[in-house]
Amino acid sequence: MNRRDFVGTVVGGIGLVKLGAGAAFCLDVEDTASHAVGQGAWIKNGLIDAGGSHETYLFVVRRGGQRVDAREIGVHEQSEEVIRKLKDQGVEVFHTHLYKSFGMAAEKAEMEDTVRTAATVHRLGMKIDTYIQWDSMMYETFFVEEPRAKDWIQCDASGQPVMLEYGYQQSFRYLPCFSNQEFIDYLKKVVRFAVSEVKTDFIHFDNFTLSAEPNSCHCGACKTGFRQRLRIKYSADERKSRFGFENVDYVNPPRWNGTNRPEKMKVITDPVFQEWIDYRCQTMADALRQMAELIRLLNPEVVIEINYGGIVGYNSPWIRGTDPARLLGYTQVFWDESDSKPEFTADGRLLSAIRTYKMARTYRNIVLTYISVSETAIAECLAFNQTIGFAGVSPLPANVVKYIGFYRKQRELYVEAEDLAPVAVLRSYASMTYSNASAGLSAILVEQALIQAKIPFRLITDEHLAGLSSATCKVLILPNVECLSDEQVQTIERYVAAGGGLVATEDSGLYDAWRRIRVEPGLTNLLKGQTQMHGSNSKNVALAAESQPQRRELGSGRTVYIPAIDFDGPLPPDQPYFTLGTEFWKRPKNWQELVNAIFWAAGEKLPVSVVAPDFVAMNLLEQTAKRRHIIHLVNYDLERNPSVVNISIRCTTPEGKPVTGVRFYAPDTDDGQRIDFRMEGSEAVFTAPRLHAYGVVTVNW
Ligand SMILES: [Zn+2]
User: What spacing in Å lies between the alpha carbon of 611 and ligand 1's midpoint?
Assistant: First the structure.
């Protein structure tokens, strides 16, 4: 099986190509079609988006519970008065409704309203962001317009329509099936209207998700599509290896009963289940690709955004049919609708959206989050998203307006800044999808240790492994990456042989990409001290004396094997589908061991060191043309610690070039205060001024 099969096949290379912009990522640019390159290029200058409501009046009425003057409210939300007010507050993109999935006939009048609104928005020198519902079909009106649509809906194993999993009282919403080309063709008509009639600048596809088992679609198109994919993806011999037989004519999506509940399945080893997950993820990616190709054809300036959810602890390939690695090559923006506020909790958990932001940066995407929930959320967004994203709904809160002002004034600190992160954490599709409770948890814990230790890191997915260069990626971390293909093992061996540092934990490499148990540990040539199937998936077992990290030098490369990543305290109870909510987002007990391993494996000093309390997070970027490093500092414990002093920072420059100046920017003192520094060898050493919620340090050379 080649790597392409491993990552899910037919990805089309679009994501890889887009990464070509990312010289700082040092990922090889390889592969094929390039139609995502440059799509919506204006977004490179950042995004300040706000609305306006995205709900149509038709939906508000059908949902019920509205105010009696809902119509007037809706008209006001699209009015020039609201748009002008947002513009005056610094908003550059106006978000509004276009299509909620009642069918174009039922929504025609309000879609025409949006055409007029777009003209106003453009006349005022702004851009428009239009809402299109992805995963709904309001059948009461839709079937009137398009009777064939009765065959386009998702239905469960009993043939009943699959329903929304939230909201109650919305049984008027069926879900369309993305294996059904007739439905996709219908949705293209909506997209065409958005680009050609509305002249939209930005398409927001909402509800970009499928439902968790047992609510996956079992319609005819899905069954035949699934079987066909197995025939195309694998040769007859490979099908025999995969399933034990060649003929897949009667293979079905998974079924469940009262004693076999999908939400209690901890490890997914059934090959058909694994392939079904892959099929669902690929179906969503393929449907998005079709939209992206159409949009590209109609107008390459239109930004494409999906609300797929970000990294919030879900096993999203399994329960939502979304694999970010297959989607984010087609998008420039995505939503993370998590409602957990960034904060530092009393038990020492730094809760953040940093993972989501980092995944977005890897794929050159911008994230939309609810930044208006707190000043820390806005600060975090600027620090890790490098722009505002979604400012909220009019009227905007004062804090948001203040930060928009700061961002617009200091925009050159953000535009064309590249993340500088010599440490990479692999989020392995197979490992995390088939064993979220174990591999997923280790990833969360390792990332948490890095965040709280203020180590500059990036998140990568399987496709990036082959492009890692030991010249820029000093340490690759495999957090209990149980499943590695033979090809991935060889890639990692080459990386270490070229001088790379590897930190692997727990059961990394003990399984292949189908989660078959390897006879010999996959990383046996690299790691010292890993035994086959040591079986310790439990996070709350104290480290035994013999389970200390094991270091190994291999030529110019270095490896560390860490036998356990220990959850600090009792492990929270299992959640349905083994979702890893914020109760799991805790720095592991042996975090210092992990950090020491990273420092040693790096073989040289990391480019920045920030000594600050645990509730302060850091992000490091570089603007090569402006010859400076940029260090962003965020305070996650603003209420208890509104003023952090004596943050001591050491920062190296490329090739030890002498530092010419250090400055500090913050929303309250935003003109760039000069900071004294001294050189110690190739490092500039200085103390940041008092930090409130957010500060930016520039180190020029
Ligand atoms: Zn279907």
Answer: 53
Q: 152 alpha carbon to ligand 1 midpoint, in Å?
A: 8
CB of 304 closer than 8 Å to CB of 292 = yes
Q: What's the gap in Å between 151 CA and the centre of ligand 1?
A: 9
Tokens (6 digits) for 698: 């520039």
3-state secondary structure (DSSP) of residue 588: coil
State which amino acid sits at residue 653.
Answer: T
| Interval between CA 497 and ligand 1 midpoint (Å) | 47
DSSP 232-276: HHS-HHHHHHHHS-S--TT------BTTB-GGG--S---HHHHHH
pLDDT in tens, 173-187: 999 999 999 999 999
What would you report as the CA-atom Rg of the chain, rounded to the nearest whole angstrom? 25
pLDDT digits (tens, 9 = 90+) for 552-570: 999 999 999 999 999 999 9
Q: How many CB atoms lie within 10 A of CB 342?
A: 25
Mean pLDDT of the chain: 92
Does pTM top 0.90 for this prediction?
A: yes
What is the distance in A from the centroid of ligand 1 to the CA of 224? 9
478, with CB counted inside 10 A (0-12, 13-18, 19+), is: buried
Kindly state the average pLDDT of the residues 635-662: 94
**DSSP one-letter code for 657:** P
Q: What's the CA-to-centroid distance between 264 and ligand 1, angstroms?
A: 24
- pLDDT by residue (tens digit) across 205-236? 999 999 999 999 999 999 999 999 999 999 99
